[in-house]
Every structure is written in C-alpha cells, then in structure tokens.
Specification:
This protein has 294 residues and is α+β, with helices and mostly antiparallel strands. It is built from 13 helices and 14 strands. Helix content is 36%, strand content 26%. Bound molecules: flavin-adenine dinucleotide.
C-alpha cells in the first residue's frame, strides 16, 4: 500500500520552482517513479507531497551547445540508447543505459532520478563522471553547476537542496584522440543491479601515449570511486598490456567494497581489477589499437 500524499502537477519549470520554494522540504520531486514508488511502497519514505516533474518541457531534450553535450534532467534512460549525440559523444553513458534495468524501467527512469537517488550501484554515475560531467541545479534563486563527483556525497546522499531541481547534466564533447567505455557485472546478464561497474575515458597524445585518463568504479564504495593512482600510472605511457594490468591493480586498491547479498567485498575488489583491465583493453582496441603498438 502507498502512504497518502498530495500530488502537485506543475506545467512549467517556474511553476515547479515556486512550488518547491513554498513547500520544501515537505515536497519530493517525482520523475519516472522507479525509485520513489518502490520506496513509498516499502515505507522507506513518506513525503507529504510529491511533485510530478514529468511534464516539464524544460527538463527534456539532448543538445550540443558551446562544445558541451547537454541532456535535460528528465531525459529517460531509453532516450540515451539511440540519440546520435550520446552514441557519438557519450558512448559509456549509452553502454550503461543499455544495461540499466529492463525496457519498462528504461522507458520511465530518468538520468536525474538515477543521480539524485545516488545508489552506490547507480549505472549512469560512473560513465558521467568519466566524461567529466557537471550537474545543473536550479531553484528560484538561480542555477549553479556542481561536478558530479561533488554532487554525490554518499549512499543515497547528494548536495541538492530541497528547493532545487536537477535541470540538466552536461559534459565537454570528448577531445580528439580519445575513447571511452563502460563495463558492468550483475548477477544476471540483464535486469540486474551492478555488483560492480566501471567507466573510463582515455585521451592519447600525438605520440600515442596516454595524455590523460579517468577511471571510475561503481558499487565498490559509498559513492563511485575515482581511481586517481591508476590514472597517474597510465599518464605518459603507451597502453601496453603490462601498463593496463598495473593500472587495473591500482584501481582495485582504490575501492572500499562491502559484503552484501550480491557479492562479498573480496569478490568485488578482485572483479574490479578484472573489469578495469578489460575496459581499458577494449578502449585501446576501440581507438584502433595503435597506442598499444607504440
Ligand atoms: C526493476 C528495477 C530495475 C532497476 N535497475 C537498475 C539498474 O540496473 N541500474 C540502476 O542504476 N538503477 C536501476 N533501477 C533504479 C531506477 O530505475 C533508477 O535509479 C532510475 O534512473 C530512477 O529514475 P526515476 O526517474 O524513476 O526517479 P524517481 O524514482 O522519480 O526519483 C528518484 C529520486 O530522484 C529525485 N528526482 C527525480 N528527478 C529529479 C529532478 N529533476 N530534480 C531533483 N530531484 C529529482 C526524486 O525526488 C527521488 O529522490 C531499477 C529500478 C527498478 C524498479
């Protein structure tokens, strides 16, 4: 049974922000509802009011502006699967979308919902962090941008204020000589939460060495982990099997996994090393394998 609540249905973003300003913190945004409704049913949350943000056109759309890819907070996971800007400039996000839930969930679930819910296993967070994404938060007072790494602060915790909405997520269009990808291990091949997931982006220099890398591992700590030591181990190097193996080992050391029903901490740490190695190898192959042969 669902608890009782009032449902607010704004038609425009200004209306929605006014409602939040008036009723926060007693009102909770409702997008696809694939987290919210489950939590209401399980009595984990009982807000006095839900505010349906599904009608807000201002939260929709995927576009390119000033060298950045910008997706509205209300973008559904299904929309990420085929949009040319995502396929061309956000491949790890597209790959993550393809592994998130099932078609029914993907048709309703939104990117903002996935990020604000801030599950350690959220599938869109590592790819967006690897791409260098920022979250745009808007209230009646105006908008601010927060790097995704700082937006998520812990298990189901973000820095969003009760009167703010996630209006957009944006990242710089990937630079030349770069490639990126996403890898997920679940208990099943489809419709399964991540036991562990990872995303990475590599930028090569003109000589074929790694100029910069971002490696992010999910479901391995209270929030997605940036593997800074592993990234440093790749910098300036040709991405040979040995260099990749060392970086994967360092990446796994950056995790702080827990035992839970989906896997033990020891398994997660071991498998983190395996998937980072596979992911980096796939990225090198996607780039044409040339860096590997230098
Ligand atoms: C069967 C099933 C399978 C699933 N599988 C996966 C999976 O494989 N991987 C995965 O990562 N997740 C999975 N999920 C979780 C869920 O589908 C995602 O987290 C989804 O992206 C949440 O989006 P939503 O639009 O449904 O959010 P909602 O449930 O509507 O909202 C989630 C949270 O975000 C807030 N919110 C929503 N929109 C905004 C906004 N614009 N601004 C501010 N706050 C906002 C809400 O107030 C709430 O706190 C699964 C869920 C189900 C039911």
């Amino acid at each position: 049974m669902l608890p009782e609540f009032d449902l607010l249905r704004p038609n425009t973003l200004p209306e929605a922000l006014a409602m939040l300003a008036e009723h926060a913190p007693d009102v909770m945004p409702l997008a696809g509802g694939t987290n919210v409704i489950v939590e209401l049913r399980d009595s984990h949350k009982s807000p006095k009011m839900l505010m349906d943000v599904g009608k807000l056109r201002e939260l929709c759309g995927i576009r390119r502006d000033d060298g950045h890819i910008i997706i509205g907070g209300g973008t559904t996971i299904a929309e990420l699967l085929t949009h040319p800007l995502i396929v061309d400039h956000g491949l790890p996000l597209q790959q993550a979308a393809a592994r998130l839930g099932n078609p029914l969930v993907r048709n309703r679930a939104t990117v903002a919902g996935n990020l604000v819910n801030a599950s350690p296993a959220a599938d869109t967070a590592p790819p967006l962090m690897a791409l260098g994404a920022e979250v745009e938060l808007t209230s009646q007072a105006g908008s601010r941008r927060v790097p995704l790494d700082e937006f998520i602060v812990g298990v189901n915790k973000t820095c969003i204020q009760p009167d703010e909405l996630v209006t957009a997520i944006r990242w710089p269009g990937p630079p030349a000589r770069s490639a990126a990808g996403f890898y997920k291990i679940g208990l099943r091949k489809a419709d399964a939460c991540s036991v562990i997931n990872a995303a990475a982006m590599v930028i090569w220099d003109e000589s074929g060495r790694c100029r910069q890398a971002r490696i992010v591992i999910g479901a391995a700590a209270p929030k997605p982990v940036r593997a800074h030591e592993a990234e440093a181990a790749l910098q300036g190097q040709p991405l040979t099997d040995d260099v990749i193996a060392e970086a994967a080992h360092l990446a796994a050391q950056a995790t702080q996994p827990i035992d839970d029903i989906r896997g033990t901490a020891a398994y997660r740490q071991r498998i983190a090393e395996v998937i980072v190695r596979r992911l980096l190898t796939q990225i090198v192959i996607a780039q044409g394998g040339s860096a590997r042969c230098q």
